[in-house]
From TrEMBL:
Transmembrane segments: none annotated. This is Response regulatory domain-containing protein. It comes from the Bacteria. The keyword Phosphoprotein applies. Keywords: Phosphoprotein. It comes from Candidatus Buchananbacteria bacterium RIFCSPHIGHO2_01_FULL_44_11. The modification 4-aspartylphosphate is found at D55. PROSITE patterns: RESPONSE_REGULATORY (PS50110). Residues 6-128 form the Response regulatory domain.
Length: 132
């Protein structure tokens, strides 16, 4: 029997986390979430994460919103233990420079939150890692 696949959602909007938690749970995935890039890195190193759904704008140490998703993505792809984990950037930053940067750092896809339904995001995840 195939083991349950794990999705890590790095996101600070609780309502969005709740929606995606429900969607992925209902499709047989194990769902983890955090808004802290250090926690996310630790989970990727220790928790058999199959795919990361990554927001770019996340709260920093002082609570201010920063582009920490790029920092996380760079660290993830430089770490030999985590470099092969697929990442879908899922953000409201839709400028071409941001998209280029995310894909250049190694993300498999770059999706704008406002343009994708949860079902479309689920379909893209399943394309990348197969069903649960």
């Amino acid at each position: 029997m195939e083991s349950q696949k794990t999705i890590l959602f790095v996101e600070d909007e609780n309502d969005l986390v709740d929606v995606y938690h429900l969607i992925f749970d209902n499709h047989g995935y194990r769902f983890l979430s955090t808004k802290d890039i250090n926690d996310a890195m630790m989970l990727c190193e220790t928790d058999n994460v199959n795919l990361v759904l990554l927001d770019i704008l996340l709260p920093g140490q002082g609570g201010e919103i920063e582009r920490l998703g790029f920092v996380f993505l760079e660290r993830l792809k430089q770490n030999p233990k985590t470099k092969n984990i697929p990442v879908i950037v899922f953000t409201n930053l839709n400028a071409i420079e941001d998209k280029r940067k995310g894909l250049g750092l190694g993300a498999q896809d770059y999706l704008a939150k406002s343009e994708k339904s949860p079902q479309e995001v689920l379909a893209r995840v399943e394309e990348l890692i197969g069903g649960s």
